[in-house]
Specification:
The protein is 35% helix and 21% strand. It is an alpha/beta fold and 388 residues long. The longest helix is centred in the middle third of the chain and has 26 residues. It comes from Desulfoferula mesophila.
Amino acid sequence: MYDALVVGAGLSGLVMAERLCTQLGWKCLLIDRREHIGGNCYDAPDANGVLTHLYGPHYFRSNYPEAIAYLSAFTTWREIRYRVSSFTDGRHWSFPINLRTFEQLIGRESSPEEFRGWLDRRRMSFGEPQNSEEAMLASVGPELYEKFFKGYTQKQWNKHPRDLHPSVCRRIPIRTTRDEAYFDDSFQAMPQEGYTALFQRMLQACGNNLDLRLGLDFSEARNRFAYGHLIYTGPIDEYFGTGLGRLEYRSLRFELESYSSRDLARLGRQGFRQPYLQVNYPNSQPYTRIVEIKHATGQDTPHTNLMREYPQECAPGREPYYPVLTPPNLALYQKYLGLAAKERGVTFLGRLATYTYLNMDQAVERALRVFQGKFAAGVYGAGRERRA
């Protein structure tokens, strides 16, 4: 008899399992249908020993002191500023859009005042934008929207931006200064030894209060084990057997290219294959971006690797990565949310279970908030003894 079954060993599930085990002394079973912990944040060395993000780049950044302090108990950090380029029209462009991007566009030096005036003359007015296309046309106007956002968004989501919620494209900042940093968050860093090492320390902190079962699906575990409370971080429609219809998620395919020092020497390169951590391809290529994560990890090795990222449909057997935030999907999610509200002894947590795009720090912060507000406060009881 477990106090809690935690479904999903990604960030949300790991945080909740660690808190329940270490702070309340609960006996928890943590499961994941993959063969590793960490969910999409999992990292591991490639054939040359280069630490690799197997499911795309995960850039930790945050303005949440609680999330930073919590994770800092399990890792030291390598603080960095993430740099990204966008490759279109046969050249690299400074990205996200900033004064340098504008100077590349007009072919001369400029000023923040000139760039702001240029944007003001091109921005379109919609009142409150109703979709991602309107959001970006209102932010940067048609020329920059077509060059950097429209094609990338269509590849990423297989949807026209006008069919997506405004928040989908609003995540990328627009600056009129020469600040080329990809994010504005006050804290930007990578775990010094990688994400998997961080997660392993979280599990070690749980001691004998945690049992971990990998390669185990919830549909099997719910019938094999007795438990009091359920923490569910999987797709919410799957929990209900897709009885109201399937929610739409976007999946990804990754293509890894490893380069030894000898490979790089033949190409006339040393240490790195491309000049930027991440290069976006908004228009001409079938992939959306190429990432050379060694730029961020700072690993001391003469080898490197590239990871190409291809968005794809979330067919059966493929991992769901992103909720597709269209009006029909959001309406269907509200129906599932109504069913979830009637479930006793179940907490729905994380990106897939709440059908919300969450950054890593947001996932950590929400898990901590749910734990403190409901479990530590005694709303959900205090273990097997009380429930017995």
